[in-house]
Amino acid sequence: MSNVILKDLVKVYDKKKIINNINLEIKDKEFIVLVGSSGCGKSTILRMIAGLENITSGEIYIGDKCVNEVHPKDRDIAFVFQSYALYPHMTVRENIAFGLKMRKVDKDTIDKKVREAAEILDLGEYLDRKPKQLSGGQRQRVALGRAIVRNPKVFLMDEPLSNLDAKLRVQMRSEIKKLHEKLQTTFIYVTHDQTEALTMGDRIVVLNEGKIQQADTPENIYNNPANTFVAGFIGSPQMNFIDGNILGIGDYTVGIRPEKMITGGKIKLEVDVDMKELLGSEQVVYFNIGNKRSCAKLDSEYKVGNKIEISIDENDIYLFDKQTGNRIYR
Q1: Helix axes 136-148, 166-183, angle to 10 degrees
Q2: Sign of the CA dihedral 47, 50, 54, 60?
Q3: Inter-axis angle of helices 107-120 and 136-148, to 10 degrees?
Q4: Which run of H or of E encompasses 269?
Q5: What are the two backbone dihedrals, phi and then psi, of residue 265, each rounded to the nearest 5 degrees?
Q6: What DSSP string describes 162-220?
Q7: CA-to-CA distance for 61 and 55, rounded, in angstroms?
Q8: Confidence of residue 247 (pLDDT cuts 50, 70, 90)
Q9: pTM exceeds cut of 0.85
């Protein structure tokens, strides 16, 4: 079993709780994504699981074993970092095999495992090249290969695609998901990119200031956000937040997704377009509602300076408590 359990996990730096009583159970073979803005604690949690960061209090279990006092090399995990961390003087073959050689694995086993990893990652023709002869995507696949040959219980990935260009990131997202399906083991993936989170995770854990805001499927995170932080963080452009009194809904914070700002709903508002962004077949227009900056994703052409009527269907409205930010269900 390669489930991972975090119990009352706390990390304190300079008398401040960076990780604040995290409780999370990651299932065997699950692909879980930790997402949040810079400084939310997601990478710290990953490093604590790996044993690279000391725990102030709480417990970490990998399988059925508490690993608090277990050395990183004995935790049966593989860590893929943001930087590829490849040895420039070694070939791809030697880079992939390096960890096994350090563990005194016999040569035949190493050769077999390297060939298998190269086949999975489509690196066969590059085994005798040096890292400088590879593209960014190929180097990241080599880093993944070095992890695969370990045959770990758990893969830990810390922003592994952040150094790639947009096209390669899309390609590598797909390759990592396929890799997870082939290996059938547990993946814990850290990113600040909500698109990566929504497209890759079986579940997403949204973090803010060292606390879990919501842990759920991508569909529920997007359609049923627990609070204004989750609602505002997940979604592009982000959810509009408007004073409910302006819409005649009462003393709430009202949330509306930009794609739900339409023409034809029951609640109507006239707004002045002061900025627009063209996104191929659709555009995002920006305007103010009261003192709140808002936007709508529309498929019609509008110009800056146009007055347009935005309408909202009641079923597309989210209500949040003004004080706590928590979602109010109705």
Answers
A1: 20
A2: positive
A3: 130
A4: strand 267-272
A5: -85, 180
A6: TTS-HHHHHHHHHHHHHHHHHH-SEEEEEES-HHHHHHH-SEEEEEETTEEEEEE-HHH
A7: 13
A8: confident
A9: yes
